[in-house]
Structure formats: C-alpha cells, structure tokens
Amino acid sequence: MSKTRKLFLPLIIFFALSSFASAEEIKPICDREYFPAVHSLLKGAKKSIYLIISQFRYYEKYPESSANLLCKDLIRAAKRGVKVKVIIEQSSSHALDNSKANREVGYRLAQGGVTVYFDPLETNTHCKLLVVDKRYVVIGSTNWSYYALEKNYESSVLIDSVSTANYFTKYFEKLRRKSSMKLSPKKR
Known about the structure:
This protein is α+β, with helices and mostly antiparallel strands and 188 residues long.
C-alpha cells in the first residue's frame, strides 16, 4: 500500500464513521446516571414503551427505591394512555428466586394497566432493553433492581434514533410472539 493511501485510509474511515454517528445521538449512561435518564424518559413518554428485562424488583419496604419508581413510571404511563408492554425473564431451571420476584412485579404491572409477557421457560432472556416512543433506545447491562441501580458498576447507552428504535421494536415483537405467558392489563 502506498504512503498516500496509508495516510488517507484512516481519514476516510473517520469521516465515514463520523457521518454515520451524526445520524443518531448516543449518550453513555453508566452507574448512577442510568436512573435519572430512564426515569425522565418514562415520565415523558407519549405513545409507547417497550421493555425487555432480565431482573425487575419491587421492594415493599422501600416504596421510594429507584426500582419501585421505575415500576410506578410504567404504570403511570399506561394510565395516561401510553401503550406499555414488558417482557420479563422467567426460568424453569435455575434462578427460581429471580423468576418468582419477576413474576410478582409482572402481576403488579398488569394490575396497574401494563401488558406483561414472560419469556419461554426454556429460554434465558438476559436483555436489558427499553424503547420509548419509537425514538429512544436504552440498552446495556442495567437490570431494574436495587443493586443494579444503586450499587453496581453498570454500563448502558441512550440512543436517540428512529431507525435504531424501529429495529429494536421489531426485536421486541419477535420475542413477544415467542412468549409463554401474557398478563393482560386489569380493566379499570
């Protein structure tokens, strides 16, 4: 490869990637940055919320915990007419405590007006994915539990991109069709 090509190849790659990245806004939300970003997104949702989560907790003794507030955000969104659908992990083979706690949250959400799906028993859903208004995507390692939201090192990103949101909405629907159980929202 000539010297000129060696010099220009990195520049071409840089500009190609720069123009791609400018089509969407990507913001890292790590550790304690996650909760305020997601809390704000859920409170501002106008049309739809799709969530796939591996671990979701609700703490009776700590009503104002971050995980509880996110649960309440989903219910409030459903009550104001936002379409809220959640897929939650359940397992038949391991982590039965996780499955039990996830089911409890699922029933709470359904009572509050959220449509809840549980993944197939033979599948381990490890996703932590949120799509809001088919525009915003949050994806990363953060579960909706005390340790994930308050103690652990977690890394996630918030992406403002309609095309990325469309991709993950289709992914959500693919997993939803494979779900083994659905809890319909309680009619008020």
